[in-house]
Specification:
Layout: H1 9-23, H2 30-37, H3 41-47, H4 51-80
Helix pairs in contact: 1-2, 1-4
């Protein structure tokens, strides 16, 4: 029987996103990803995927966060009556 997952994908992706941001894709090793995330390599592979998939998920998370911040800023502008 597989072990129960003890981590949240979003939290792990957030940590990995910052690691890729600081070092870049090619300068980030799986060992560094494992250390930064605090998740065993096999657990990462099983739950999320390989380094490329982790990178794509990190980009997706960054994109979601950016859209959320833009939406919040537009809502504030509308509330303040500054929207066209």
């Amino acid at each position: 029987m597989p072990a129960k997952k003890t981590f949240q994908d979003d939290q792990v992706i957030e940590k990995i996103m910052h690691l890729f941001w600081q070092q870049g894709y090619y300068h980030t090793s799986m060992d560094e990803i494992v250390i930064t995330s605090g998740v065993k390599k096999q657990s990462l592979y099983n739950a999320i995927g390989d380094k490329h998939t982790l990178y794509l998920r990190a980009l997706q998370r960054y994109h979601q966060q950016t859209l959320m911040r833009c939406t919040q800023a537009m809502q504030r502008l509308e509330q303040d009556g500054a929207a066209p």
